[in-house]
């Protein structure tokens, strides 16, 4: 059975010594591993699955490494397969033999990056609105989720020679909000919510690109809405670049998500609730499903 993930205090990576001194159930042994990233740093959040090698190949333990990259499980004597997987990493498979009373030092396992998609070439990439969606999910207080989208927006991506120096900008027409209900949409456009008459646009401009692993990137920058700017983080998955579309033009795609806190944008929700106005929950999930075309002298104009 899996035990609690180990915690440790250290200033440098020490040798583990003769073994981990942990109490073992009668008739059991222990397996532990220390998972490192491709540059040798502790890697938390890697999924570890332990399966019996013989018989029905039953899974006997499954958990993720702790923030220090450690995983520990007590096991009955026998042979097991240990599979380690993580986003943007090549799976790593081990075969281990567990003996009664065995508690060896954690086995160090260094993960390798999975094959990366080729990044888009430097230049300006324009959003293709018919193949791009800006969606959101908001929790309706006391009821089900409300799904909506913005139907009018513009923007693009500037890919720099060094990817970390790239930029993304999105300008959304706030009045184009659509949740499939006219009464609700008009209310969302009103001064109670987006106040589109005074704040007609929602604007995001990245100021930081950070590679995480594999196709995963983090984009940070200010999001301005309802007259207030707050820094937000977009968790972004790059989906690749291909020739295709209207005239077989070069295009790239990505999926980005963020969680927004409604109180960051100075809406007087408590007064609205006191007045009996149904409001959304404390957070809103934002999703940008983007396709962008490489801008050149013959970039096609998207259809209306």
UniProtKB/TrEMBL annotation:
<protein>
    <submittedName>
        <fullName>YceI family protein</fullName>
    </submittedName>
</protein>
<dbReference type="Pfam" id="PF04264">
    <property type="entry name" value="YceI"/>
</dbReference>
<feature type="domain" description="Lipid/polyisoprenoid-binding YceI-like">
    <location>
        <begin position="124"/>
        <end position="293"/>
    </location>
</feature>
<dbReference type="Pfam" id="PF13620">
    <property type="entry name" value="CarboxypepD_reg"/>
</dbReference>
<dbReference type="InterPro" id="IPR007372">
    <property type="entry name" value="Lipid/polyisoprenoid-bd_YceI"/>
</dbReference>
């Amino acid at each position: 059975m899996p035990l609690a993930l180990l915690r440790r205090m250290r200033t440098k990576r020490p040798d583990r010594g003769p073994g981990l001194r942990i109490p073992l159930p009668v008739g059991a042994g222990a397996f532990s591993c220390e998972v490192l990233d491709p540059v040798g740093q502790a890697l938390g959040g890697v999924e570890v699955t332990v399966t019996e090698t013989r018989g029905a190949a039953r899974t006997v333990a499954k958990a993720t490494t702790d923030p220090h990259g450690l995983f520990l499980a007590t096991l009955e004597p026998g042979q097991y397969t240990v599979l380690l997987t993580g986003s943007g990493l090549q799976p790593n498979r081990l075969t281990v033999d567990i003996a009664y009373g065995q508690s060896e030092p954690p086995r160090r396992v260094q993960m390798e990056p999975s094959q990366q998609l080729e990044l888009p070439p430097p230049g300006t990439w324009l959003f293709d609105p018919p193949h791009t969606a800006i969606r959101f999910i908001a929790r309706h207080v006391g009821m089900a989720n409300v799904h909506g989208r913005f139907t009018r927006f513009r923007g693009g991506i500037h890919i720099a020679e060094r990817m970390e120096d790239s930029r993304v900008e999105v300008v959304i027409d706030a009045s184009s909000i659509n949740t499939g209900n006219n009464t609700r949409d008009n209310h969302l456009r009103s001064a109670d919510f987006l106040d589109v008459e005074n704040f007609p646009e929602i604007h995001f401009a990245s100021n930081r690109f950070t590679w995480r692993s594999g196709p995963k990137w983090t984009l940070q920058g200010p999001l301005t809405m309802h007259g207030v700017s707050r820094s937000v983080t977009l968790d972004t998955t790059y989906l690749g670049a291909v020739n295709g579309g209207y005239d077989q033009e070069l295009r790239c795609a990505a999926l980005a998500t963020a969680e927004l806190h409604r109180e960051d944008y100075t809406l007087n929700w408590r007064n609205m609730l006191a007045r009996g106005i149904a409001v959304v929950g404390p957070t809103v999930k934002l999703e940008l499903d983007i396709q962008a075309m490489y801008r050149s002298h013959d970039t096609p104009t998207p259809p209306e």
